[in-house]
Amino acid sequence: MLPRCEIKIHPDKIDSRLGSVKVQIRTGLSQLFSDIKKHYLASWIKDNIQKEECCFYVQGDREGVCMCGYLKIHHVDDSIKPESNQAVTWDRHNHVRQVPTDAFGDISFGGLGQKTGKYVRVSSDTKPEVLYQLLTEHWKLPPPNLIISVTGGAKNFYMKPQLKAQFRRGLIKVAQTTGAWIITGGTHTGVMKHTGQAVRDYILSNNSTEGQIVTIGIATWGVIHNRKPLVHPQGRFPAYYSQDVQTQGHMSCLDNNHSHFLLVDDGTNGRYGVEIELRSRLERLISQQPLGNKESGVRIPVVCVVLEGGPGTLNTIYMAMLNGTPCVVLEGSGRLADVIAHVAGFPVAKVTLSLIHQLLKRFFCQEYASFTELMVIEWTKKIQDMIQMSQLLTVFRISEDDHGDVDVAILQALLKANRSSGSEGRESWERQLELAVAWNRVDIAKSDIFTEESQWKSSDLHEAMFSALLGNKHQFVRLFLENGVCLRQFLQEDTTLCHLYTHLPTSCFFLRLLVKRIQTERTAAPLNISLRLVSDEIRHLLGSFTQPLYPLPGLAISYLKEDVSVNVSIICLDCMSAALAASKILKKLAEEDEEEDDEAKEMRELANYYERHAIGVFSECHSCDEDRARRMLIRSSPSWGHTTCLRLALEANDKSFIAHSGVQTLLTQIWCGELAVDNPLWRVLLCMVKFYWNIVFYFGFLLLFSVVLMIDFQTTPSWRECLLYVWIFSLVCEEIRQLFHDPDGFPFNKKAKMYIKDMWNILDVLSILLFIIGLVFRLTTSLFYAGKVILCIDFIIFCLRLMAIFIVSKTLGPKIIIVKRMILDMFFFLFLLSIWVLAFGVAKQGILINNEDRLNWIVRGAVYEPYLIIFGNMPSDIDTTQFDISACTVNGTDPLKPKCPVLNEDQRPAFPEWLTIILLCVYLLFANILLLNLLIAIFNYTFQEVQDNTDNIWKFQRYELIKEYYSRPALPPPFILLSHIYIFIRRLVLRKPLQGHQTFKEELSKEEEEELLSWESFMKDNYLQSTRQQHSQDMDQRQELTHPGHALRFSVQVSQSAEALQWIMDALKSQGFNAIIDAPQLASPGKHCKDESADPKTKEVEKKSYHVNARRLVYPGSNITRFPVPEEKVPWEVPDLNDSYRHFHGPHDFLRKPCFLGTGFNENTFFFFCRTGMRGRGSLCCLGPNHILELVLTRYEASIGSVLEFLSVWNREESLWELPGVSSVGGALAATWGEYRIGDTWDDEQLYVLQVYEGYVDDIRNTDSAWLETTVLNIHLDRTDHQLADINRMVRTQYSHPSYHP
């Protein structure tokens, strides 16, 4: 026996405690998983990321402060040594060591902006590969499609409100649409602050963390203010950072609007610029990553956005442009940005030292005094080089008439740089298109890629089309379809379509249906979707009346995007059937996905869009050729399961399409017996008489039925009653024929469902069943009268069935539809009314009558009498003044009288009269006034709603009636039994199929099919063109009315018109024509017109530049920079240069190398004019001229003799084509190329040698003391020359390096 427990717990408390335990367990598991992730991240960071700390204390200028910038107390014990007291020079490379980082985790800011972010303290020598792995794998950032490196002024500066707004809006838009990473300095000052405020505005306006803008701040650890809370050996999750700008002094606070921080540490404190090199290396690494994880050769692009800025910014953007990074400069942001923007459109020769002096003085104001002459020279040279790289420089200017934003300027700058990157022709356009698709900027693709210059084939766009479909970028899909993508070619391989279905969005309801079907069939995994499964699912959605079809439409509707799906249907040959089929599929999906209201609503809206598209195409066809349009309706479509447009519209319940005048004309022709001019009168009468015969005979049936019920209903059936039974039997046979016979080829279950859905068929079945029951009762003696009652009720149903015949009437049909809708509304009203009737009836019965046990009188008192009160039949038993004891029975013994109410001693009613009267008044108030007026309002609403759409509904139901009577046998009941006997003998006895009705379905030959579809495609193009023109006109009108420059352009047009009229008047006067009246005064011409010839920029002729490549700032193969020689100091006509030039010495280390001295040159012979910015030998072989020989080897093409070919080599590193060249020895032209001596071939009569050029070469290796001179020879070879094979072999041998591709 178990021990007795004194603790008692209620079962409800047990459930509540179990629920709380479950919540605690769930919370604990979540916390456990979070702790495991944090522990793993901390372990990985400690193993892979280091920080730097000073390991040798050297006293600086201040007491107790090391030369590294940190206090002595912040150094470890072993770093303070006795030797430090001696005069030792502190060196970062020798006195700084790397240890595992101690600052990482989540950073939390107070106030507005990014609530939490990620941060880590890293060494300045950290490999960028490790940082990229941290960002993408551990911080879970998706790989970027674009890197936006924002640079500029590090101190706070003023920006005009309009420019500030455009910068913020454009920066966020380009980052949001392209999936870009924004990289800044990360502090709360200058351009970084403006970037952070742009992110903050986006977050506040969206009020959601979805679609977070990735803003990475790369800052110097040693200049971060309040960085102590960030330090913890195991990481901070989170670290609460205080942004105290007031007390930061010369330090800087982190910006609270950045999402990620890389804090670069080099072991020093208080020194800015430590992060620049690591930031550059990280950006370079990211730019080498493939775009979109594909091996197409396209890398992640990088763009530099410049605001304001000083000397450091100039060096940053100059080096970025040398590395091929495009830069966008915002004019009006101040200082350096305005200097560059001012000279960006000038020729190089006009950018002189004096102009730069003026601009620096203008835009730098007081800072100009700190610029030395050498700095101005350096700035001039760098700005000149940047202007020459115009393909990498874009200036964004604010204009009142230009509504372009910064985002457009950024993306256009990238495309402009890509076009000039060396890619040839089609490859360049394809890379630009892939970038635009990755950014999801269809506006850029339309304006910059799909231009008249680019001619696209369908195969060229297949890869981009695939990417757009996978990325659910419907606007790009539309653009590709409009520019020539052929779906048949694109989906030629089934694997492409399978791959697209497999990568449908996870939220797609169609994908969930496919997975459900796969799991039901227990076949492959959900990702292995076969076309058979897709085809089966589409056929299920479309309807089993179709045959198996190609699974393309499922792809269109799966994305649930209007542009995608509509364009897929538009591009199909059978576009009208495609639109109607898609409408049917989407409505079916909406029915099966009723749980998702928003998604189902979107499906229904898209289905309506499909229907409108089908109506538009059919309207275009019908207006052009009515006969062809009608054939389109009944044509059997092989692409859509051999069904017809008319059948698809009916299955999709597309009432607007069926109500089209062209469709109704077809139905009218069928209804009137294919009425046409060439039809004889007897044929028209024969086709029309079928319906009217049925009406006349149905009236005869009702007349016979009524006569039997009222006059001739005998115990033994009379001949009239027997005729009625035969008539009913013919109706039963006809209903059975309709159920089993279907010319459309529906299976029986589908036909049965369609039969039951029709309300008139339900009435038919009900009337037949009641007649059978009444007949059975009528044939029995005991239930004879009951049978007659049932048959009388059945007569009512047969009379109601008469309304279905008059649906075809244009006058009565819509009214019958309204009556049907009102009957449905009345059922809902009766539910509300029954509540009040029962409430009042039961209360009244209980108060008045005590223990009534007769059921009939209970129903009469509780239901019937309260119902009659609504229609004005006031009760007399609730008022004692009208009480008559003779009208009731006291004990309920008289079955024909109601039971008397409770009586008192005076034999008067004892119930509270005041209460019953109040109940009656309240009941009348709600039932007669409220509910009846509610019913009237419901009927009025239904009438108005249906009346607006009654015509469409009537026309839609008219089709089914026409089809029913068209397919019926010609004879009316009861003579229709003869037709049924014929059908029975033909089908079951003779086993012969019935002849199908071709009126609603027509099989065309292949030639007729192609001709009709081609015509439909032409009509579809006309419809789309007219739609686009209408849309374009509407947009143009709105833009003209709202454009701020409309008035200015109008005034310019008026001015030009005045000028033209003035010229006409002057010309007429010069011919001797005089006006009758004086001419009106015209406006002065040309006031608002801009004279392009007056612009000095357009008139400036570019002068020849000298030593362009030879003045490249960084000497190749080294870290040594040249002296920046400006353009104006290069020509030899410039006399003496100042001392800064004369005494500048180049890389003396190069002079110490062994060198071959040319004739007349030695190590003491130099040109001190410093035209290239460097003296010495450099990487050339000798001082003075270094001779090379370059060959232009030509031959004629084998098949076409007029095409001249030449040999060239592609240098992958420099991205340019080169001629095969050889270095000569000692300046001799008889050079040796491999084993082939060029000079020995000149006397060969078979070779044609022509000297093309001889002289100086502008090479990047040139210095003032050593330069290249070349001799270019053209050698024309015949394809049969024996030297040709040797030359090919030597070219491949000499240029076998991977950097070259011959």
Automatic annotation (TrEMBL):
Record-stated family: Belongs to the transient receptor (TC 1.A.4) family. LTrpC subfamily. TRPM2 sub-subfamily.
Keyword entries, A-Z: Calcium, Calcium channel, Calcium transport, Cell membrane, Ion channel, Ion transport, Membrane, Transmembrane, Transmembrane helix, Transport
Membrane-spanning residues: 691-711, 760-777, 789-809, 821-843, 914-939, 965-985
A GO CC annotation given for this chain: plasma membrane
Location in or out of the cell: Cell membrane
Chief location of this protein within or outside the cell: membrane
A Gene Ontology molecular function term of the record: ligand-gated calcium channel activity
Domain Ion transport: 691-950
Domain TRPM-like positions: 448-553, 572-660
Lineage of producing organism: Eukaryota, Metazoa, Chordata, Craniata, Vertebrata
One Pfam family named in its UniProt record: LSDAT_euk
Sequence ranges assigned to domain TRPM SLOG in this UniProt record: 118-344
Membrane topology note: Multi-pass membrane protein
UniProt-recorded name of the protein: Transient receptor potential cation channel subfamily M member 2
PANTHER family xrefs: TRANSIENT RECEPTOR POTENTIAL CATION CHANNEL SUBFAMILY M MEMBER 2 (PTHR13800:SF2), TRANSIENT RECEPTOR POTENTIAL CATION CHANNEL, SUBFAMILY M, MEMBER 6 (PTHR13800)
